[in-house]
Write a structure and sequence with these properties.
The complex is a heterodimer. By secondary structure, chain A is mostly helical. Chain A is built from 3 helices and no strands. Chain B has 7 helices and 4 strands, in the order ββββααααααα. The model of chain B has no long low-confidence stretch (mean pLDDT 88). Classes of the chains: A mainly alpha, B mainly alpha.
Amino acid sequence: MDPQAAKFIGAGLACFALIGAGIGIGNIFGNYLSGALRNPSAAASQFTNLLIGFALAEATGLFGLLIALIILYG
Amino acid sequence: MEQFEITKIVDLDLFGHDISFTNSSLMMVLAFAVIVGYLLYAMRGRALVPTRLQSTAEVTYEYIAGMVKENIGEEGMKFFPWVFTIFIFILVLNIFGLIPGNFAVTSHIIVTFALAAMVWLVATFVGFWKHGVGYLRLFAPAGVPLWLMPIIIPIELTSYLIRPISHSVRLFANIMAGHTMLEVFAGFAVLLPWWGKIAPTGFMVAFTGLELLVAFLQAFIFTVLTCIYLNDAVNMHH
């Protein structure tokens, strides 16, 4: 295979990590929303935790994106 | 891509190191001037009943002060000026980057990595300064059975060492991905005939609104994580 083509395929495969980030972020916000609808008075106090969970879930996916960028431009 | 290119404005050389004044430096200096100018101008009256402009500055202050108190406690207020500077600097740089034609400083990983490395070094230094060698207990959480320690300690150590990377990549990747997305859709709008330009242009308008939210959210998350890392160092809560 042409090394250039293999590079692009590898970068594309590395982006699969973002599937997990998508699932994780959807999970966090979905669960927050269902929890907030059940008990709206407690929702505001958990907003910071929501964003921390969002940030941590996103970071794992972004590592994959970083690998893709390193493959492409590194 | 052209929008991420760094161009030199003034060529400077320090003992063989390239320290040229670039468009990136220019944006940072502008952001600094805007922040200082805004805060000084907004607070010039120092009125007990604030004007509208003064209350925007006060709301920003109270917001970050509340975040620091909530995450680190009263003791954390020592770090408040630093945390506030980080927040407002990243927020203003992110919003500056959204103005068409402007350079987005935070879309370069070296800038965000320098910020994240500073946060990590300060947190580690504060931890060792406050707790001495006892700070290493952070890697061996209480209540974990002894036979699990050989697994837990490497995991905790790795997650601690990877903090500056995850901290910086989050901000950089979000801003860079957003700007790339805008550029791709702008490319559609240029290439398509007139009837095709409507949809991509409308999408770009909507997406710029979303990017404004992301600009704030990422500055907020960067600051919250700074507070959490500092909390680990100051209180060693796990």
